Amino acid sequence: MNITLRVWRQKGQDDEGRLATYKLTDVSPDMSFLEMLDVLNEKLTLENEEPVAFDHDCREGICGACGVVIDGEAHGPERTTTCQLHMRSFKDGDTITVEPWRAKAFPVIKDLVVDRGAFDRIIQAGGYISAPTGTAPDAHANPIPKPDAERAFDAATCISCGACVAACPNASSMLFTAAKVTHLGMLPQGQPERASRVVKMINQQDEEDFGGCTNIGECAAVCPKGIPLDTISQLNRDLLGSLSKGVG
């Protein structure tokens, strides 16, 4: 495949960015998108140009480190992580535009790399439990209804990639926060902090300058792990219940 790339280049948070155009030839359809970027960087290095900075780690779709906007869509045209997107999703001769996540709370560090420390601070605000979990046999001491366990597991699949924020017109992180609140809120070990957790995490989310949720649904549509939109409804119920009790 021969493709043309329009890649966002930006030296730092305070620098002005631009789209730079590069041409690649003989791109294998079996390459992942990140492998294609590796080929581009090898080419740029040989030409004594600065390689494109992009985030990655496991390249297996489980760590959430990777993530870019491809042709206006978070993670690209398939519902998967950028590292699991393959070049067979594109056609020979395509022009592909690659940009970083766009959100005030995710400042650009360099090129396609953004600072997602805001997610870490939201979790630090309340995404934990104080109940001792004990040893493995102790985990079975409290029976959990199967629907509750499945919902907790579904919410726990969130990998904090930030696609929900990038896709939302308001740059809201509500789906991310809702996944963390729902995951712990469905389990017995998560009950002691359940009321205070949702208030603390929402307050921190607001402090990080994420936008407000208006239930557009783009977040759930692009989530590579399929976090359902109704987790936001559960967060709202927990929040209203906590506030009605004077928590916060």
Automatic annotation (TrEMBL):
Co-factor binding details: Binds 1 [3Fe-4S] cluster. Binds 1 [2Fe-2S] cluster.
GO terms (BP aspect): respiratory electron transport chain; tricarboxylic acid cycle
Cofactors required: [3Fe-4S] cluster; [2Fe-2S] cluster; [4Fe-4S] cluster
InterPro entries in alphabetical order: 2Fe-2S_ferredoxin-like_sf (IPR036010), 2Fe-2S_ferredoxin-type (IPR001041), 2Fe2S_fd_BS (IPR006058), 4Fe4S_Fe-S-bd (IPR017896), 4Fe4S_Fe_S_CS (IPR017900), Beta-grasp_dom_sf (IPR012675), Helical_ferredxn (IPR009051), SDH/FRD_Iron-Sulfur (IPR050573)
Top-level class of the enzyme under EC nomenclature: oxidoreductase
Gene Ontology molecular function: 2 iron, 2 sulfur cluster binding; 3 iron, 4 sulfur cluster binding; 4 iron, 4 sulfur cluster binding; electron transfer activity; metal ion binding; succinate dehydrogenase (quinone) activity
Every 4Fe-4S ferredoxin-type domain range: 149-179
Coiled coil: none
E.C. number(s) listed in UniProt: 1.3.5.1
Catalytic activity: a menaquinone + succinate = a menaquinol + fumarate
A Pfam family it matches: Fer4_8
Origin: domain of life: Bacteria
Keyword terms, alphabetized: 2Fe-2S, 3Fe-4S, 4Fe-4S, Iron, Iron-sulfur, Metal-binding, Oxidoreductase, Tricarboxylic acid cycle
Residue span, 2Fe-2S ferredoxin-type domain: 1-102
Similarity annotation: Belongs to the succinate dehydrogenase/fumarate reductase iron-sulfur protein family.
Name of the protein in question: Fumarate reductase iron-sulfur subunit
Organism: Nocardiopsis sinuspersici
